[in-house]
Amino acid sequence: MDIPGFKPRTKEFDYGGGNTVYNATSLDDIGEHEIIYIARLYNIAPQIDEFTQTIDELVVEYFPIYDSYVYPILSDDERLAFHDRMGIALHYFGSESTDANPETS
């Protein structure tokens, strides 16, 4: 991605999963940007296909509002329940408004 101030985070993913995330590194990067996604299909080693998609996306400031709840994990692959395994649930309420994002709620 050739936009100054943006840093790509990429990773190889198996079938059916994954994404790539871009973060603005300053408030000057807030606004609409053209983003190009490239998907490549491999059969063991050789690349057998490639697909490119271009979209325009609005990059905004984001300050999530949420509550967190801790709970014991009761069912998993461990032999004993409550074996120091806790989960965290988040209840998401939206995002705080900011000067760059006055309409966010």
Using DSSP, what is the number of strands? 6
Largest sheet, strands/sense/barrel: 2 strands, antiparallel
Helical residue percent?
under 10%
Give the termini distance in whole angstroms.
29 Å
How would you characterize this protein structure?
The protein has strands at residues 6-9, 21-24, 31-42, 47-59, 64-72, 86-95. By secondary structure, the protein is an all-beta fold. A hairpin with a 4-residue loop joins strand 3 and strand 4 (47-59). The chain is flat. The two termini are 29 Å apart. The model has no long low-confidence stretch (mean pLDDT 75).
Describe the SSE topology.
Elements: E1 6-9, E2 21-24, E3 31-42, E4 47-59, E5 64-72, E6 86-95
Antiparallel strand pairs: 1-2, 3-4, 5-6
What structural keywords apply?
105 residues; mainly beta; two-stranded antiparallel ribbon
Brief synopsis:
0% of the residues lie in helices and 50% in strands. The protein has 105 residues and is mostly beta strands. It is flat, with a radius of gyration of 20 Å.
